[in-house]
Amino acid sequence: MKTPLLAFNEKGIYCAEADVYLDPWKPVDKAIISHGHADHSRWGHKKYITHHSNVPIIKHRLGDISCIGKDWNESFMINGVKFSLHPAGHIIGSSQIRVEHKGEVWVFTGDYKTEDDGVAVPYEPVKCHTFITECTFGLPAFKWVPQQQVFEDINNWWAQNQKEGKTSVLFGYSLGKAQRLLKHLDPSIGKIYTHGAIENMTEVLRPQLEMPETTRITRDIKKEEIKGNIVLAPPSAHGSTWIRKMVPFVTASASGWMTFRGARRRRAIDKGFVLSDHCDWQGLLTSIKATGCEKVICTHGYTDIFSRYLREQGYDARTEETQYEGETGQLEADNEKESA
């Protein structure tokens, strides 16, 4: 039986021909990293290869690591196997990893989305025989509205809260979601304050992205200064002692899970904005079709439901277990140094 070009084992997605792993979850000698979120870029590998715009992100998070940066579409050979990185549109520096050997092409998406958010380099379909896809939101119920409408709703919410003398506290992951929110907030409404974890990551990304001015919340800032303005904070700040400085405040979360009202209630959030850095149902299907692939491997998310649907559409589809969490976890928020 022919050995697959990429195989899933206890450490991650392994290319035996090149002796290299893609987004491994246990320490390995050589890792190609799709993007900077903690479930995909973990500490402990001897050598990291990633897109050059992701290098400062993972060095900020992981410390003094051996890391090589590559450009989009730049081919590089490892033991006779050809690799290249292509835009995934998920967050800044997020890549799909193309692997080619003896005429066979596989693409590992990492995490991805098809909507151009004005922050990440937009997703580009890559032709392949086998496509490894996340399916975080692999249900027909997930259907995103254009982000322009969502940001209009967010800015209107902020303005209304300001009229009522309340501070707007908006939760989003410190890497990716926070910068996307920041990019589209309207600074004419008021000042934008940030939690320390978000400010730390935003400082890393400012050389790559034009964003409005922000003010880090420190112990010296008075409650009266914040009142009526907006505060960006990671989800882990909700319910913490840190948030007491914002009283009186109204909370909101920007997430694909806000599609379901129950998710908002469970998280004790006042308002939910449906905004995801992952594909919705149609985005997943459109992306898969554009690759021209025959085989699909479904990882984290609604894997069983989504793979079954793909098989009904004629694809050779199956699932594989990984330790990726998509938008179901808060790893990168929890792992940040969240000093106020």
Automatic annotation (TrEMBL):
NCBIfam families (alphabetical): Xnuc_lig_assoc
Annotated region Disordered: the residues are 320-340
Know the name of this protein?
Answer: DNA ligase-associated DEXH box helicase
Question: Which keywords belong to this entry?
Answer: Ligase
Recorded superkingdom: Bacteria
Against InterPro entries, the record matches this protein to: MBL, RibonucZ/Hydroxyglut_hydro, Xnuc_lig_assoc
- Report a single Gene Ontology molecular function: ligase activity
